[in-house]
Amino acid sequence: MIPTYTVRQFKDTFISTKTKKQPFDDKVLQTVKNIMEDIRTRGDEALQEYTEKFDGYSGDKWEVTKEERKAAWKEVSPEVIESLERAAANIKSFHSKQLQQSRIMEMTDDIISGQLYRPIERAGIYVPGGKASYPSTVLMNAIPANLAGVQEIIMVTPVRGGDSIPPVLSVAADIAGVNKIYKLGGSQAVAALAYGTDKIPSVDKIVGPGNAYVAAAKSLVFGDVGIDMIAGPSEVAIIADETANSTFIAADLIAQAEHDERARSFLFTTSKELIDETLVELEKQCSELPRKDIAEVSLTNEGAIVLVDSVEEAFALVNALAPEHLEIQVENALQHLSKVKNAGSVFIGHYTPEAVGDYFAGPNHVLPTVGTARFSSGLSVDDFVKKTTYLYYSEKALRNAAPYVETLATKEELDGHARAVKVRLEL
Ligand SMILES: NC(=O)c1ccc[n+]([C@@H]2O[C@H](COP(=O)([O-])OP(=O)(O)OC[C@H]3O[C@@H](n4cnc5c(N)ncnc54)[C@H](O)[C@@H]3O)[C@@H](O)[C@H]2O)c1
Ligand SMILES: N[C@H](CO)Cc1c[nH]c[nH+]1
Ligand SMILES: [Zn+2]
After folding, report:
1. Interface pTM (ipTM) of the complex?
2. Of the residues 95, 235, 258, 325, which is catalytic?
3. Domain 26-227 carries which CATH code?
4. In CATH terms, are 4-21+233-362 and 26-227 the same topology?
5. Tens digit of pLDDT per residue, the chain (427 long)?
């Protein structure tokens, strides 16, 4: 089911800029442009129409009430609540170490300079809900926002049939400190968060993963509000040698593939035997999978297995690919970490499946996809803070700087700038 590629074929198909996957196509972009324009002009009326059309919810009571949020706790099992709480504690512990303080860069009698760290005031978090619901994504989005000190965290997620969101999402939102939840999804929800409507407050930044419509909407609102990233289909790349276990490898490829037909699962290995065993395991494990149909389409259309000459060759391919997730399942895996140049998040050794990071361990699972790990990072506390620099100069300090400022201002033919220094020193 999953095709095998030579190194050259893999490069041409998945790494070449000519064939590189885009998070969304022109048709999706045009659809989203129309929806967003409609939300901006007609507000809640349009929001209601699109929510009915795409999510089947015709009501206009989008906010999940306090009573509904309280009632949700009775509908979720104690095991799920305990797992969410334990995961939340790990995520909180990991992300709290990302926090930075405002700091002074220079302090003399005549010059003080530094940087203030301030949280953004209102963050919108998108939690996908079309094909599956993701309480783990609620934790991953909201906990860093909360730690950063965001005053109001507003979550949107579409209903999946019926007129309410899954209770587990509401419980996760309580655990993570979400202030408001709206039953809205897709590009209409992103537009409402970006521009506000009578019922939906506008936010300063929108974060979180979603499908192509959500990604297109985020790309369009960027500039009017902040965004974390434009996420494409999820990916895992696994580097394995002959010490790897084909049952583990197949399970990890399937774990990514079951997310979405467009998800991408790649194996780079030095072992021909491992390839043969993995192919057999994939057939076996897929046949028992509830989301078999999605996983099989994903593996067949978007997956790849590549036989490489060496682990070094595999790292070269992976660094060019810059995958969202990288698993290193080779002998002495930890020793290879320094070879990673481009990847969203790395899982090291035979007993660190991506799944433990997706749910529980602490690092964030909202990560850069389709090669963007070359220049960007996963969601973190940094996404929810702004850095404002500041400067104090005494008269003496300005006098020392004046000749240089005036020279540069004159060179740029900005006389007004030179004068702003001169007038202070001529008094
Ligand atoms: N990177 C991560 O951290 C992470 C985590 C969880 C999920 N994901 C990914 O997020 C994605 C979730 O996608 P999803 O579809 O399940 O949920 P979603 O909530 O992102 O999208 C559902 C919404 O898409 C809109 N939509 C659907 N069809 C449309 C159409 N024809 N025209 C206009 N709008 C339309 C609807 O408004 C609907 O509410 C998957 O690709 C999944 O792999 C990523
Ligand atoms: N693997 C997803 C990110 O690519 C995150 C996730 C959520 N739930 C399960 N997995
Ligand atoms: Zn996952």
Report:
1. 0.98
2. 325
3. 3.40.50.1980
4. yes
5. 899 999 999 999 999 876 677 889 999 999 999 999 999 999 999 999 999 999 999 998 999 999 999 999 999 999 999 999 999 999 999 999 999 999 999 999 999 999 999 999 999 999 999 878 899 999 999 999 999 999 999 999 999 878 899 999 999 999 999 999 999 999 999 999 999 999 999 999 999 999 999 999 999 999 999 999 998 889 999 999 999 999 999 999 999 999 999 999 999 999 999 999 999 999 999 998 999 999 999 999 999 999 999 999 999 999 999 999 999 999 999 999 999 999 999 999 999 999 999 999 999 999 999 999 999 999 999 999 999 999 999 999 999 999 999 999 999 999 999 999 999 998 5
Domain covering 4-21+233-362: architecture = 3-Layer(aba) Sandwich (3.40)
Report helix angle 26-42 to 44-55, nearest 10: 140
| Domain range list for the chain | 4-21+233-362, 26-227, 394-425
- Which residues lie with the beta carbon below 6 Å from any ligand 1 atom? 31, 54-55, 128-132, 134, 137, 158, 185-187, 209-211, 213-214, 231, 233-234, 259-260, 263, 365-367
325 is catalytic: yes
- Both structure tokens of 139: 């934790």
Which strands, in side-by-side order, build the sheet including 103-107? 103-107, 111-119, 385-393
Measured at the CA of 189, the angle between CA 193 and CA 147, to 5 degrees, comes to 55
Angstrom distances, CA of residue 215 to CA of 222, 271, 334: 11, 37, 34
What is this structure's pTM?
Answer: 0.95
235 CA: nearest ligand 2 atom = 4
